[in-house]
Amino acid sequence: MGRIKILDDITVQKIAAGEVVERPASIVKELIENSLDANSRNIVIEIKNGGKSYIRVTDDGDGILSEDIENAFKKHSTSKLNTIDDLYKITSLGFRGEALSSISTVAKVEIITKTKNSNGGVQAEVDESKIISRNLVGAPRGTTMIVKNLFYNLPVREKFLKSNRIETNRITEIIYKIALGNPNHTFRYINDGKVILTTSKNSDFKNHIYSILGSDFAKNLIAIEYKNEEFSIKGYISNNKLYRANRSHQYLYINGRYIDNKDISRNIEKIYRSIIPLNRFPSYILFLDIDPSKIDVNIHPTKQEIKFSNHETILNTIIETVDKKLNDNIFIPKANFQRNKNNKNEEIEDIPMLFDLDKKNRQTNSSKEDTIVIRDLRDNHIGLNEDIYIKETGRKLYSKKELQEIKNDNINEKNYNEDNEINVKETLDNIKPIGVIFSTYILAEDKLNGKFYFIDQHAAHERVMYERYLNEFKNESINIQQLIAPEIIELTSNEISKLENNKKIFIKLGFELDVFGNNSIIIRGVPIIFGHPDIKDLFMDVLDNIDIEPSSSYDLRVEKIMKIACVNSIKSGDNMEEKEMLALFEQLKQCENPHSCPHGRPTMIEMSKRDIEKEFLRTL
Questions:
Q1: Which residues, including other chains, have CB under 8 Å from residue 121's CB and lie 6 or more apart?
Q2: Per-residue DSSP letter, 292
Q3: Per residue in 154-208, pLDDT tens?
Q4: Phi/psi of residue 42, nearest 5 degrees
Q5: What's the Cα-to-Cα distance from 75 to each of 20, 21, 92, 128, 478, rounded to whole Å?
Q6: How many Cβ atoms sit within 10 Å of the Cβ of residue 359?
């Protein structure tokens, strides 16, 4: 008897379901996408125990016709395709007809649905893709899908699910991505009875971002837009003040579908290299609209990967658009004083916050609001009236009306300052050095605009050296200084192999060297830009940062080497004369990116006269 057998239909279905339903988050994603395809405007998602025991998605969309319910849960049944040609012009989020069938194969499913013109709704229970009960019920227009006991019939798959917290986090991530990309819909997300997210339909996308990701995220975004006959790009990218430790805030939508495209992500990150700190990632929210016939979304079960027919054109356009907008919108970071760090949940404003402490001690005459009992959160001071407050704090007690006016003035001034930030090159024209602190930071004053700056002398000079060396490298004009006494360095066999595979890079970087014996090299010349470096340390730093085998990411490796090779910059502790400071300002001004060192640290930080006056309580 032969060993090869034909699997039964139930086993085949469960194997196939595993490609679509990997975890609870997969179900949530598929059900929300079905709701969006059904022209819904309001979607409610509820989960329990990380979605393992309970998932409910309710919408107010078109609903499912009574006669279609049974077919809806059969394999490869869909209302979104008619022929093979439709695969090349897909505009819906779901289309394969796999989701409902796969979900009902690995979980208990209940559906309640009603169409616009039907007199009542239909409630049905589904098991193994088959309707096991069906009833007429009263229901609003739309569809509710309830999924219970995921993988109850696949204990092997069930035990590989993560903890409730981890599975919840994955669901939350999916919901935030979908909600962010659909500002014309309202979403309500409930986890174990607690409302996690509520969004409203919003015509202003910046406000939509604010409501989901917060004010700090929204205020540090740069709008971008591009359009031609083939495709259009619009959305937001982060400025040099907004970055994250991972890629969780990189959102790309193609024709409304959230997509994970590593090629686009890597190239955008390359633009931010040396603008934000090392090991930090930019954020972006980009929407690409393109003719559906120019893309293929049918290459992965999750539909989160995509292929473009004009990939290079789209990629280059995104890179050019992001690069230009980013370089036009890089500003000097402002120094902020942090107060009351003991209470991380309490945000204290720059002016005294006054609140009623005890209603029975409040003045009953509303015209004497200036003598209400107060608590000053900044000093944790409690007073009984204005005289005591002024005597013990030296500050005036403001009425609530006056306080609100002061707040409004501060807000207006803050907005004015943010809208009128100037970049580094404009600043360097106006500042004069007035001293150095800690033998590291140059103090420079801009009397005209009432501001002063801390300039990191090492970061600034490292940027100058880096760009000068990079330009020499690109133009193949690196000057080499011959060593009076050549340096002999012993290497391991692995290091020798690495050197031989990448010798052309060392030559382009300005090294003159040859293999000297079995495991040694002799260096006769080094790039003149480094003055008199420690030859061995410089060479080994470069060698250590080259892959053993040459790769296609040639430019990436070279830029990494450049950053390490800038070892001869001015260091902390080096003394600088005023004329040297002025020369450094002028050199920094000529840099393509004067805002940060090659590692992404800022070259300078701004403070204003008003910031200082607030600290000395000269102003509110």
A1: 63, 112, 113, 114, 136, 137, 138, 139, 140
A2: G
A3: 887 888 898 998 999 999 999 999 999 999 999 999 999 999 999 988 878 988 9
A4: -130, 125
A5: 12, 14, 18, 11, 65
A6: 7
Between the alpha carbon of residue 4 and those of residues 1, 7, 382, the distances in Å are 9, 9, 84
Tens digits of residue pLDDT in 568-597: 678 877 888 888 999 999 999 888 888 888
Across the strands, what pairs with 326?
none
CA distance 91 to 620: 55
For residue 586, report the phi and psi dihedrals to the nearest 5 degrees: -65, -40
Q: How many residues does the chain have?
A: 620
Q: Which two tokens stand for residue 498?
A: 């690495």
Rounded-to-integer distance, Cα 282 and Cα 224, Å: 15
Report the greatest alpha carbon distance in the chain. 103
DSSP state at residue 333: P
Tokens of 605: 């930080």
Torsion of CA 153, 155, 161, 165, to 10 degrees: 80
> Is-contact 449 430, C-beta < 8 A?
yes
Cα 30 to Cα 242: distance, rounded to the nearest angstrom = 32
User: What is the spatial distance between Cα 150 and Cα 102, in angstroms, rounded to a whole number?
Assistant: 11
pTM of the model as a whole? 0.65
Which residues are CB-contacts of 245 (< 8 A; sequence separation ≥ 6)? 279, 280, 281
Closest CA to 22 of 149, 129, 150: 150
Task: Provide the b/e sequence for 382-407 (b: ≥16 CB within 10 Å).
Answer: ebebbeebeeebebebbeeeebeebe
